[in-house]
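Pair request: fold both.
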Amino acid sequence: MSDSLARDLVAWRRHLHSHPELSFHEFETAAYIEQQLRDMGLSPRRIAKTGVYVDIALQPGDSMVAVRADIDALPLTEATDLAYKSQNPGVMHACGHDGHTAIALGVVRRLLALCAS
C-alpha cells in the first residue's frame, strides 16, 4: 500500500468518525463520499436518498465487482478525548462503519489504479 493511500484511509476514517449520522440521516456522509469519488474522477450518484452509487468503466465483457459499505452510526455518546471524536452529540461510529467506508474508498482507488495500468 502506498503512503498516500495509507494517509487517505486514516483521513477518511477520522473524518467519518468525527461526523457520524444515524441511519437514513446520512446526508452529509453521503455528500462526503460523493466528493471523494468525484476527486478520483468518478461520477457518483445518490440512490435511496442517502446511498451513493458509482460505476467504474472497465473494458466491455470484463467481470463486475461490487463494493458495499454501511455508513450509519449508532445512538451512543462517545466517551473519548480523541482529536477525531464524534462532533455530533449522542451519535457515534461504535460499529466500525467509518472504517468500512474508508476501506471501500480505498478499494475504489486501487481498482482505478489497476484499470489504468
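--- second member of the pair ---
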Amino acid sequence: MGVLTLPVRLSWRDPGWWLTAQILVVTVFSLFWNPLDFSIYRLGGSAVRSGTDLYLERQAGLFFTYTPFAALSFTPLSWIPLVPSRLLWELATVAAFALACREMLLLARLSRLRPGWVVVGGLMLEPVWHTLFLGQINVFLLALVLFDVRRVAGGTGLGVGVGIGVAAAIKLTPGIFIVLLLCAGKVRAAVTAAVTFVACTGLGVVAAPGASRLYWSKVFFDTSRVGASYISNQSPFGALVRLLGGRENVGSWYLVVPLVLLTYGLVLATRRARSGDWAAAVAVGGLTSLVVSPISWSHHWVWALPALVVLVRDGRHRVALAAGAVLALSPMWWLPRDLPVDWLTANAYLVMGLALLGLLGVSGERAGDVLPLRRSGTIVRSGTFSRRCFEPKSGV
C-alpha cells in the first residue's frame, strides 16, 4: 500500500512563501527574546492575582498603565510558562493582524487585492513589527474593532458592539468608536458596546477594587507616568513637549487641540458612516484616536493602516505609497536630529496622520458608487463613497 503524499511547493512569487518565512522569524524571535511590554502585561496579570498594588509598583522597571480589566485579562498569561506564553502571544498577534487585514479588505470591498500580500506587506511596516518586538496588544484591539465595524456595515450579526466594548475596556482610545456608532445612528450597537465596556470595567473593580479606585481617580489623568517627550510618542502633545522643552511648558490651552481634532474627526467619520462608507469611517476614527491621545507610541500607529486601504480603494495610490513609506522607514528613529527638517522628521507619523485626516476630509462621496451588502438573504444598498478617492519611555 503506497503512501499518499501531497507535495507543497511555495514560490517566492506566492505570498504564502513570504508569510511562512515571516512566521518562522517570529517563532525564533519569541523563543529567545522576552518582549518588554509583554513582560509588563504578564507581571500585571500576576499583580492582580496576588493582590499587590498594580499601579504603585513598577513592573519590569516600568509602570503598568492599562485599566484594571486589562490586567485581569492578562492573568492567564501568568499561568503558562514564560517561553510558551510569549510564543503563543506572538503567533496570536500575527493571526490577529491577518484577521484585521481580512476584515478591512472586506469592509472596503477590495477583492482585487490578495489578503496574503497585504498581510506580508503590513508585517514589514514599523508599527506592526514594533508591536511584535515589544509584545504589544494594539493589533488585537484593531482586529476586535474591525470585526465589529464590518458587521455593523453589513447590518448582520448578534452582539454587534461587544468587540468594541471589550477593546475600549482594555485600552480607552477605542472608545471613540462607541461614540461613532451613536453618532452614525447605530444605537443598538452603541448601547451594546457601552454596556460591554461598563460590564468589563465592573469586572476589573470586583477583581481589584483598590487598584480600580486608584486608576480611575488618579492614574487615568496622569501622563507623567510615561515619557511623553520620547521620540516614539507621535501625538500632538508629544510633539509640543519636544518643541517647547518639557511638559511643564505646555499650558492648559493645549486642551483645545484634542477637542478640536476630536470634533473634526467625529464629524467626518459620522458623515462617511451615514453615507455607507464604513471603511473610510473606521480609517478616520483610527487616525483621530491617535492624534487626540496624549500618548501615541509609534506601535500604536497600527490604527493608521485602515487609511492605507481606503487610499488604495479610492485610487490614491501615490498617497498610499508615500504614507506606507513613512510607516516603513519611520524616519524619526534614524535620521540625524541636526538636519533643518528636524521637526518634520521627529514627528513624521503625526504629520502624516494630520495630512491623511485633511485629505479624507476634502475627498467627498461620489454618487453612483453603491456597495451591495447582504442582509438576511437580500441585497441592501449601503450608501455611496468615492473610489478616487531621545528620552526613554517609562511605560506602555
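Observation on the second member. Residues 82-108 form the longest helix (27 residues).
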